[in-house]
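If you are new to this repository, start here. Below is one unmodified record pulled from the training split, so you can see the exact layout before writing a loader.
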Amino acid sequence: MYRFILHLRHDRKLKHYKAMTNEDYMNNELAELEAMTEKEACEIYNVDYKAEAETYIREYWMYIA
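And here is the target side for that same chain:
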């Protein structure tokens, strides 16, 4: 079952709305991961290494589209 997640993001500079894409969500999640410590990432994503969490995030957002 596929589902499309649509959220609107308001751009204050350009005064218009932009629909967020799966790539936007992936980039946001990767940015959050980058800010985490190794221990936090391992606990949240249930992995052994932070790099493994990055792989899971990329695969998830690339293959659900």
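Two things worth knowing about this chain: The first strand starts at residue 8 and ends at 11. The beta strands are 8-11, 16-19.
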